[in-house]
Design goal:
Order of helices and strands: EHEHEEHEHHEHEHEHH
Largest sheet: 8 strands, parallel, barrel
Helix content: 25-40%
CATH superfamily: FMN-linked oxidoreductases
CATH architecture: Alpha-Beta Barrel
Radius of gyration: 16 Å
Oligomer: single chain
CATH class: Alpha Beta
Shape: globular
Number of helices: 9
CATH topology: TIM Barrel
Distance between the termini: 18 Å
Length: 233
């Protein structure tokens, strides 16, 4: 069984963004979150990734990187693995297979047993992720469900990631994805900012991902989202 099958909550740290003054990686790791994912859309470098991986890797919580491109990949014994986005609704095939092919071609240190794809469906057309990947975000819930079913049944994906990146999404789209899969785990990310938003989306998805909140508001706000996600499970 994959570890994420038992998760409720993940905090995603962007190495290109600072923590709030007085906050620490130790506080984030002890917030109650099930895992830390490290990655971002822009401004990513191996040096920035290394700093956050090594800082988080000191604590008793699984640490994964989510690389957006080869230059942001960092290998370390502190890692539990790699979560690699495959953007199903990308208009630019670079983000479906192109960047992944270059990683496989140029990186001789990949531990394939620790490398896991995430079948991304990006749904906020105003987000940097949508712009970066040229994603078709105008999808009805039944189309989102079809993508999820296809990802699991045709592509063998074990993670379906519904990404609204920066705003709270449509629960109907998330529920459609959850209803469409049999064993895959549905991640949801975007706009989780308090107990209620975490609880709402955790009733639709298996795992909620909290990103900007920890950079903008700190760990007290983060802990409230952990509580909301846990109470919904």
């Amino acid at each position: 069984m994959h570890p994420w099958a038992e998760w409720n909550h993940v905090v995603k740290l962007d190495p290109d963004k600072p923590l709030q003054e007085g906050e620490s990686f130790e506080a984030i790791a002890s917030s109650g979150t099930d895992a830390i994912a490290i990655g971002g859309t822009t401004g990513m470098t191996e040096e920035k990734m290394a700093h956050v991986v090594e800082a988080c890797g000191r604590y008793d919580v699984p640490v994964f990187i989510e690389p957006s491109h080869l230059g942001a990949v960092y290998h370390s014994a502190a890692l539990s693995g790699y979560l690699v986005p495959v953007v199903l609704n990308a208009g630019d095939p670079t983000w479906i297979t192109g960047a992944h092919k270059e990683w496989a071609r140029l990186d001789t240190q990949i531990d394939w047993e620790q490398t896991h794809p995430e079948a991304y469906i990006i749904l906020n057309g105003e987000s940097a992720a949508a712009t970066y990947t040229d994603a078709n975000t105008e999808l009805a819930p039944d189309e989102v469900g079809a993508y999820a079913r296809m990802a699991e049944q045709l592509l063998g994906q074990s993670i379906i990631y519904i990404e609204y990146s920066g705003r709270l999404g449509d629960p109907a789209a998330v529920k459609a994805a959850a209803a469409a899969v049999e064993e895959a785990t549905v991640f949801y990310g975007g706009g989780i900012h308090d107990y209620d938003s975490a609880h709402q989306m955790a009733t639709a998805a298996d795992v909620v991902i909290v990103g900007n909140l920890v950079h903008d508001k700190g760990t007290a706000a983060l802990r409230e989202t952990v509580r909301g996600a846990s109470d919904a499970s």
